[in-house]
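Archive entry. Fields below.
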Amino acid sequence: MSESLDPRINRLKLGNAGEVIKVEEGENWQVYEVFHQEKRGAHHEHVGCVHAPDAQLALVFAKEQFGRRKKCVNLWVVRSADILAFDAEDEDMFANNIEKTYRDASGFKVMDKINKFKQAGKAAPQQ
Amino acid sequence: MTTSLNTDIAVTDLITKMADDELIIGHRNSEWTGLGPVMEEDIAFSSMAQDKIGHALALYTILHEQLQGADPDQFAFMREASAFKCCHLVELPIGDYDFSLMRHFLFDHAEAVRYRHLLQSSYTPLKQLSQKVKGELKYHTLHANAWLLQLCRAGADSHARMQAALDTCFPLACGIFEPAADEVEALLIAEAIYPGEEVLYNEWLDQIYPILAQAGLNLPDVAQVRPAYGGRGGQHTKWLVPMLNEMGAVFRLDPQASW
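PREDICTED_STRUCTURE:
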């Protein structure tokens, strides 16, 4: 069979069935999620992922992938394996959020009542 | 389906018990607002309190719209204590955090079992409500389980307090499953509205046992426990009347007011 043109596959000898595979130190690349901060004080936002042999190089690759064009003041990388999450089937725990307007300040329409109260106060004769 | 008068009476009884439990424990959980041991727990108990009171409102609305019941606010805030059908577990003050967490654990697993069965109820309004609250109850039990396990591995003193809380709460929690009169229970089962308190009780035990075992807690011998019955029939602890007075104080200032 012909060898792959991908140097990573050739280096890891992934294309040769039956041959013993030996992974050298630094060749076990992990997935790192990248979080981008547009301006100081803002939340870092998830923007994608990079593959890297360690966190230091993940930061280098993250800068090249996600920090070359738009405004950027900081980047984080986090190993994907360290990120914990709810299962997809747990979406139902959030299903009723939209209708719980009482959990938002904007859910309370009280300005009309407040203004009416103020007007009534102004109209009252001073004691 | 068209329900008979007897079925309406039986369903009204079932829904009133469920709604009263939710309203009263919702109020009790809300008493942790501003007092929780950490801010996140303050918010968590307040959030779950809102869910419970929302469930109570939904149930009272079914009574009002489907079963000729009173207006929900009137029913919640103007009824005498003796007309409430809540179990004793929900009536007790919040106590220390170990007590409130254990009550929350036992109560919310009971709710999860009950509503899981109501997902197949022949009574459509209850079936629909069960579908709607499913995700919330999943979170409530998730929260309770996480804290139970955390506190039971937090040293000997913490574990001992959780065991004491379990010993205190368990007979009270058994009162959730106080059966209705035999003919009422039989009718609800025959009509496939719900499977009866005995079935729910046994499934509840099966559900809480593995988590308690994982936490290293000993469940009291169920054969020896005397359940705290009476609430379903209007006999309540001394804690209910002052709580109802406090809860209803604003509403009773002017029951006809539009706020």
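CURATOR_NOTE: The two ends of chain B are 38 Å apart (CA to CA).
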